[in-house]
Amino acid sequence: MGDRPIAMPSTQQGQAMPLALVLLIVLCIGLLVTFNTGQITGKKVEITNAADAAAYSIAVEQARARNLAAYLNRGRVANEVAVAQMVSLNSWVTMVHSTSANFQDITKWAKFIPYIGPVIGAIDKALQVVNRALKVLRKNVLIPGFKLAIGTLDQVLNRAYATTAQVVLSDLANEANLHAMVGKIVRDNSPDAKVSAAGRTVLTMDAAQANNDLTLFKPGQVDGLHRTNVGGERYRNVVMASRDDFSRDRRTSLGPLGSNGGTDLVEYDRWSGVDVHEFRLNLLITTIKIPLGWGGTQAVDEDQPRFFAGMNNGRGWRSPYDNRTYRAYNGVTSRDIAGRLIENDPASRDQGFQKREAFFTQYKHGITHPYYDVKEPARGERVGYAELPEGDKAGPIFTVEVETEARNARSSSAIGAGAGRMELKDDARGGKLRAMASAQVYFNRPHEYAPFKRMVWGRGDGKFEQGSMFSPYWQARLVETPRADKLILLAGP
């Protein structure tokens, strides 16, 4: 039998091509999905950064505005302290002048006493020189210089500070500035994005709430001896607590000889200071005080009011910061002989000074200018506004919503890729991509610094200082968007 050829199995051709096409379609769809995801994610990150930048910038701007107002208020307080120092110094120098003049009168008779006469005569000559020097100092330097300085501080600087602080924190300036600033910041970070209509509504509401958290107090030129108001008391408390030691307490003693005096903001537009040097004889049941010299000075408008009884009709100043009551004029009263002498002759008439020279009438306004400060806590509130640096009551929150057209993400559908069955539609609410962010202005004077830094910037008692428009420690931070703002934004078109 002859050999027969072996039959080879037939090969199948063309079956892999459909599989390759399917894989290619899946690959293309995957690439489009990846491309779209990257584009949309990139645009979302961009507008999120824009929203963060806008919200944080608003908070920073508002914190700076509050800090500027605080610095301006502190400037006014510093000016008031300077007026108190000038009143104190003139009153004290008048007392020294009066004392030296009275001692000189005594030495005129004592220098004829045998043996000690030459010594008394030398003292008399020295007192003559002192008296002449003090008279020239008061007449040509202190009185005209202090009048000019007080007029400048009160009528020029304090008015300018008060006006600027009101403009910085005014409702109209805040709202207009916020909308202009947020629009620019959004465009700088995402040129094709803008603040949504709902976002502008929320921002307007936030600005109104921020302004509502502050109150414009108006001390006014009222009779601060008999009638008070909240604004006047708040500001006067800060000013009185800020006095230097010389203005607050001029008590000194050397054996039976001693001096005493103090300067108080008796009303909202009147500084008054008195000084006395006296001989004190302590007996069992009382102390006899014989005045050797005295003086008084007031910074007022035009009148020449009485010195006594003093602040709060002689009751003194009740400090809300340390719960202490400080006596009017540091204890000098009209019941003493010195008090009556000061009332009748505060400028040392026997040395050629008229009573009117004890009154600096360039002090026209005092602390009567309006000023902004944080609201008082509502009755029953456990935590008042800006009392703690954490929480929704730490300070105002500003929310920004940024939107852009979904096609600005340059996805496949936006650029025309993947038409037909390969088209992947962008499903965005209203055809827009959105991002929201919130930032808060809060007050925090830190207390955990090292000793030197704590001495300069922070508290050393471990307590939180309550926020106010007198302390420039307002700061900014990003926070979670409040639920109320979210609901409004999510309900928008």
List the helices and strands and how they pair.
Blueprint: H1 16-110, H2 117-168, H3 171-189, E1 194-195, H4 197-212, E2 214-217, H5 230-241, H6 245-248, E3 252-254, E4 257-267, E5 270-282, E6 287-299, E7 317-319, E8 324-326, H7 337-344, E9 359-360, E10 371-374, E11 397-405, H8 412-415, E12 432-443, H9 451-456, E13 474-479, H10 483-490
Parallel strand pairs: 6-9
Antiparallel strand pairs: 1-11, 2-10, 3-4, 4-5, 5-6, 7-8, 11-12, 12-13
Helix pairs in contact: 1-2, 1-3, 3-4
Structure description:
This protein is 45% helix and 17% strand. 37% of the residues are buried. The N and C termini lie far apart (93 Å). The longest helix has 95 residues, at 16-110. It has a domain at 72-168 and 218-373. It has helices at 16-110, 117-168, 171-189, 197-212, 230-241, 245-248, 337-344, 412-415, 451-456, 483-490, and strands at 194-195, 214-217, 252-254, 257-267, 270-282, 287-299, 317-319, 324-326, 359-360, 371-374, 397-405, 432-443, 474-479. The protein is rod-shaped and about 170 Å long. Strand 5 (270-282) and strand 6 (287-299) form a beta hairpin. The model has no long low-confidence stretch (mean pLDDT 84). The strands form four sheets. It has a five-stranded mixed beta sheet. A four-stranded antiparallel beta sheet has the order 1-11-12-13, sandwiched between helices. The chain has a two-stranded antiparallel sheet with strand order 2-10. Helix 1 (16-110) runs antiparallel to helix 2 (117-168) and helix 3 packs antiparallel against helix 4. The chain is α+β, with helices and mostly antiparallel strands and 493 residues long.
